[in-house]
């Protein structure tokens, strides 16, 4: 009996399908087993690390500031009069008590001379009363009255002397006569200005602290300031405000520095560095700083299990050896090469940086 060709074709097709499944089961199992095997160590990403120990490092608060005079006083007239002379040169250094403006004395000198003459007369009367009282020709009451008259005459002399002295408008302290407000011939009423005095030794360097730094400082802490010219000044904190500026939420700080030659002027920009004690810190390469997914600045390091971890850090200061940061604890293997190509929790091959 002859087999039809259609049966032969169907049988052949069935045989091919059966062979396909048999071959797939043999080689597919080996592939799954190969996929189940862990990746060899050579397939892990490689990073270089530096072992960074923990050490004590001085903390400094750095702010932008400016120089400022320790005192600024507008010197005003206590009496009325016309300016007769201006002995002190504007912008010059003057000693305490130096005459800045001198007013015309006018009739005040005559009043002083009259008061002195009256005082001499009362002195003679009092002396005569004492002599007469000793001889019994003057009562004790009259002696006391003459003494009272003498005291009153002395007070009038002192009053007239003060009136004359007020014609000399003097420097209240040693410093720079910064600005003269009155020239010769100017009429000054009581309370009108002769000029302004500023004190430049000691000199102040002032600035504003953010809220996060204000609690770290104390009065008396050493500080230094570097001017734009490169000149360095050193001193100590003399004042830290307790009340924040309502607009900027910052705290005012003043550093007093010595300026004996008064070569440093008021109003110069300066970078102020104030000591805020010491604490644990790590020195890391600048290039090791990275940002995490949340935008925090930090470093990636390797755990003992050779897994990558991230730690946010705060930069304390930068020096030629790198940056000093806080936020790490104990010795840490900081990733210095490859830190931007690995993620937290990822296992890596570790090599020591050269």
Description:
By secondary structure, the chain is α+β, with helices and mostly antiparallel strands. Among the domains are: 46-58 and 280-352, conserved putative lor/sdh protein from methanococcus maripaludis s2 fold; 62-68 and 197-277, Efflux pump adaptor protein, beta barrel domain (Elongation Factor Tu (Ef-tu), domain 3); 105-166, Orthogonal Bundle (Helix Hairpins), CATH 1.10.287. The protein has helices spanning 5-36, 108-134, 140-165, 211-214, and strands at residues 46-52, 55-76, 81-85, 93-94, 99-103, 168-170, 175-180, 187-188, 193-209, 222-227, 232-240, 251-257, 269-284, 289-291, 297-302, 308-312, 314-319, 322-326, 332-337, 349-352. The strands form 3 sheets. Strands 1, 14, 15, 16, 19 and 20 form a 6-stranded mixed beta sheet that branches. Strands 2-9-12-11-10-13 form a 6-stranded antiparallel β-barrel. Helix 2 (108-134) runs antiparallel to helix 3 (140-165). The longest helix has 32 residues, at 5-36.
């Amino acid at each position: 009996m002859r087999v039809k060709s259609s049966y032969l074709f169907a049988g052949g097709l069935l045989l091919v399908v059966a062979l396909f499944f048999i071959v797939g089961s043999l080689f597919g199992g080996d592939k799954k087993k190969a996929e189940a095997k862990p990746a060899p160590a050579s397939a892990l990403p490689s990073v270089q690390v530096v072992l960074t120990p923990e050490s004590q490092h001085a903390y400094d608060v750095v702010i932008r500031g400016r120089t400022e005079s320790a005192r600024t006083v507008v010197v005003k007239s206590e009496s009325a009069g016309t300016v007769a002379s201006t002995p002190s040169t504007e912008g010059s250094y003057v000693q305490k008590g130096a005459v800045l403006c001198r007013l015309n004395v006018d009739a005040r000198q005559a009043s002083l001379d009259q008061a002195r003459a009256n005082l001499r007369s009362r002195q003679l009367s009092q002396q005569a009363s004492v002599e007469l009282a000793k001889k019994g020709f003057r009562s004790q009451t009259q002696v006391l009255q003459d003494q009272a008259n003498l005291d009153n005459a002395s007070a009038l002399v002192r009053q007239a002397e003060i009136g004359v002295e007020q014609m000399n408008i003097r420097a209240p302290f040693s410093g720079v006569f910064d600005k003269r407000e009155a020239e010769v011939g100017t009429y000054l009423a009581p309370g009108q200005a002769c000029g302004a005095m500023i004190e430049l030794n000691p000199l102040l360097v002032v600035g504003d602290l953010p809220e996060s730094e204000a609690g770290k400082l104390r009065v008396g802490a050493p500080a230094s300031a570097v001017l734009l010219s490169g000149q360095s000044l050193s001193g100590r904190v003399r004042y830290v405000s307790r009340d924040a500026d309502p607009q900027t939420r910052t705290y005012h700080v003043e550093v007093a520095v010595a300026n004996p030659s008064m070569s440093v002027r008021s109003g110069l920009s300066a970078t102020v560095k104030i000591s805020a004690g010491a604490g644990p810190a790590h020195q890391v390469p600048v290039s090791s700083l990275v940002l995490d997914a949340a935008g925090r600045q930090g470093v990636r390091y390797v755990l003992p299990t050779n897994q990558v971890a991230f730690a946010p850090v705060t930069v304390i200061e930068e020096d030629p050896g790198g940056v000093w940061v806080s936020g790490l604890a104990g010795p840490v293997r900081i990733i210095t090469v490859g830190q931007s190509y690995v993620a937290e929790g990822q296992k890596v091959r570790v090599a020591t940086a050269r």
